[in-house]
Amino acid sequence: MSYQALYRVWRPRKFEDVAGQTHITRTLQNAIVEQKFSHAYIFSGPRGTGKTSAAKIFAKAINCEQAPVREPCNECAACRGIQDGSISDVIEIDAASNTSVDDIREIRENVKYASSSVPYKVYIIDEVHMISNNAFNALLKTLEEPPKHVVFILATTEPHKIPLTIHSRCQRFDFKPITNQAIVNRMKYILERENVSVSDEALETVALAAEGGMRDALSILDQAISYSEDVVELDDVLAVTGGVSQDVLTEVVQAMFDRDVQKSIQLLDKIIQNGKDPGRFVHDLIFFMRDLLLYKSAPSLEGLLERARVNEPFQSLADIVSNDWIQDAIIQLNQCQQEMKWTNSPKIFIEVAVLTITNRYNEPEHTDSVDSEAVMQLTQKLSRLEKELEQLRQTPVASGNQPVATKERKRPARTGKNTYKIPYDRIREVLKQAEKQALKQVQSGWANFLSKLKGMNAPAHATIQDSKPAAASDEALVVAFKYEIHCSLFLDHKDTVESVLASILNKQLTIIPIPEKDWQELRADFINKHEASGESTSKKDQSTPLIDEAKKLFGDDLVEIHE
Ligand SMILES: [Zn+2]
Fold first, then answer.
1. Cα 73 to ligand 1 centre (Å)
2. DSSP state of 122
3. How far is the CA of 145 from the centre of ligand 1 (A)?
4. Nearest Cα residue to 67 out of 26, 34, 89
């Protein structure tokens, strides 16, 4: 016997099998028993919530030979004929493929005739919002005066696309996303009869991933069953859905809140190396944080949690993180999710988001130890500011006639986490001393350096991995960073990075970061000026105007210089 998917085998045959929609099924049952049912219904709701199943059960119940009944008997000729589709009085139409006016006119012609083998003709039109306006108009004529022996059930995921004139002639039922608990209960019922063992944790995770759809839940369950060895465990479900476990999410949030940059980045790296989907991870993280916030605000609303199960680690996390911190983190992650849509390397955006959240000042609510740490950081910041202020006082104000380009700044001072002030003068000094040989030496050791750094300090590596050496003298190295934000994040790891680089090159270089786009400008500008003043650039810098022009046009990577 060929294998049948669970959701096909276990399509509900009775109202009581339709999970999580008792507010609808009970109303329908009462109307059927009292013979007061309507002749036109709209069943709206997300996919996989039981709309067409309920429609078919309704068709059986009103046509059952035992009628009036609360449930179809599923034994009589009428019930069986409707179930297997052999009775032509119950017609299922997929509006996604039958949307022409002619199709609807045909229905209109046919409704006039009495049903042939059961009392009621039932038209179930799925995805009804897909039919054209003209077709709706044709349908409207029928709905205005439906014959007594006809029932229309219009199912749709997008009720707002159905004209008001149709709405006003139908009784509408809104199918809700099925609660996780209802999905779990239904799966348990099915699994008992299929003789398959699945751990509770795994079932809950299937329900979370299905997002309120029974059909999705059963197809994930199907995949997990074929993936697993014997008993279906949490890992089997996570492997099928590409999700990460709540334990991992808890650990990531905890590390970010502890401002443990190294651990946050290492966890992220591991998640992605394990083949988890980056988009899915951010999505799950957002929902996890949302649940954390909800739980903190109203612990009694545990039933409304979408992603998280309340366990001990979850509770202790909720105890320490502040609402503000979570809200901030959610904003960062949301932004990251938007940006990820337009890139082929989503990992960078997640890293930046994780670093930003991790580096953010957090305001713990209950822990004194973290509290004092925060105070210490503030004190450090304050004394740094005082020092800078003192320096400013001692430096005479620059006279107005000094030619300074508008973008230039005298000192490489940092004012905030995300703004990086480029030390133009220092970079120019390096350019004047730059040696092609020195740059070549750095370039040849760069890959080694990156891999050594990654092993020693992942967060530091994350800040510099997308950058490249741009110019080098005997003492300093200008590094062009693809993302401006990485320049300022890099400064937190400057000493570590420089010492690792020194261990590879056997000489100490001071690294000066500059965003790539500013580097291109500065470099072109520098070369122009030197040409104008008659100095030769070919010796100090590795480019000639021609090559430089070519690089400007095609980018550094695409131009190879053959001597
Ligand atoms: Zn029956």
1. 4
2. E
3. 28
4. 34
Residue 75 Cα to ligand 1 middle (Å): 5
Distance in Å, CA 71 to ligand 1 centroid: 8
Give the amino acid at 205: T
State residue 242's pLDDT score: 82
Q: What is the widest separation between alpha-carbon atoms in the chain?
A: 104
Ligand 1 centroid, distance to 113 Cα (angstroms) = 23
Question: Taking a C-beta distance cutoff of 8 angstroms, is the pair 13, 56 a contact?
Answer: no
- The residues of the chain scoring below 70 in pLDDT are 1-3, 98-100, 303, 361-384, 386, 390, 393-419, 531-563
- Distant-in-sequence, close-in-space partners of 393: CB < 8 Å, separation ≥ 6: none
| Burial grade of 267 (CB within 10 A; 0-12, 13-18, 19 or more) | buried
Beta strands 476-481; 121-126: pairing state: unpaired
Angular region, 127: left φ>0, alpha ψ -120 to 50, beta rest: left
Q: What is the pTM of this model?
A: 0.57
Beta strand 121-126 pairing with 90-94? parallel
Q: What is the dihedral of CA 192, 198, 200, 205, to 10 degrees?
A: -120
Cα 6 from Cα 195, distance rounded (Å): 13
Give residue 32 CA to ligand 1 midpoint distance, Å.
14
Q: Which helix (H) or strand (E) holds 492?
A: none
Q: 356: closest CA among 495, 450, 484?
A: 484
- CA of 89 relative to ligand 1 center, distance in Å: 15
pLDDT for 454-489, tens place per residue?
A: 877 777 887 888 888 999 998 899 999 887 778 888
The per-residue DSSP string of 307-355 comes to S----HHHHHHHHHS-HHHHHHHHHHHHHHHHHHTT-S-HHHHHHHHHH
C-alpha of residue 84 to centroid of ligand 1, in Å:
13
Residue 138: what pLDDT? Answer: 84
Q: How far is the CA of 25 from the centre of ligand 1 (A)?
A: 17
Provide the edge-to-edge strand list for the sheet that holds 40-44: 90-94, 121-126, 150-156, 40-44, 171-174
Give Cβ neighbours of residue 301 (< 8 Å, ≥ 6 apart). 294, 295
**How much distance in Å is there from the Cα of 78 to the middle of ligand 1?**
6
